[in-house]
Design goal:
This is ASCH domain-containing protein. It comes from bioreactor metagenome. The protein is of the alpha+beta class and 112 residues long. It has one domain: Archaeosine Trna-guanine Transglycosylase, Chain: A, domain 4 (Roll). It has two helices and five strands; from the N terminus they run E-E-E-E-H-H-E. The chain has a five-stranded mixed β-sheet. Helix 1 packs across helix 2. The model has no long low-confidence stretch (mean pLDDT 92).
């Protein structure tokens, strides 16, 4: 079984459905079950969606939600926050970087 590791216990991991944005292809398939691991969570989730696109083409509201900035309202406010946060994980990322967005739905049984 494939694993997706999160370096922090992001709030989004408490949601039934959540996303992750990666700068590399995890080679996941729709309906595949993967193990989600963070410092204090370990549970199974199903891949329910995925997208490959340049960062600039990903909906900024999805990016903000994924990164935990739900209160930011405009793209002007969002742009610097998105890049600054993404660069904590991927230092060389730019708006032209191809990224992979994976959408997961947590299975009913969760460990924590």
């Amino acid at each position: 079984m494939k694993h997706i590791h999160f370096s922090e216990d992001f709030t989004k991991l408490q949601n039934r459905q959540f996303t992750t944005i990666r700068d590399h292809n995890k080679k996941l398939r729709l309906e595949e079950t993967v193990r989600i691991i963070s410092p204090s969570h370990d549970f199974l989730a199903e891949v329910v969606g995925m997208e490959k696109a340049k960062l600039v083409h990903i909906d900024y509201k999805l990016l903000l939600t994924d990164l935990g900035f739900e209160t930011v309202k405009t793209m002007r406010e969002a742009e610097p926050l998105i890049l600054e946060t993404m660069r904590k994980f991927y230092p060389d990322i730019t708006w032209d970087t191809i990224v992979f967005v994976y959408i997961f739905r947590a299975k009913k049984s969760r460990g924590g």
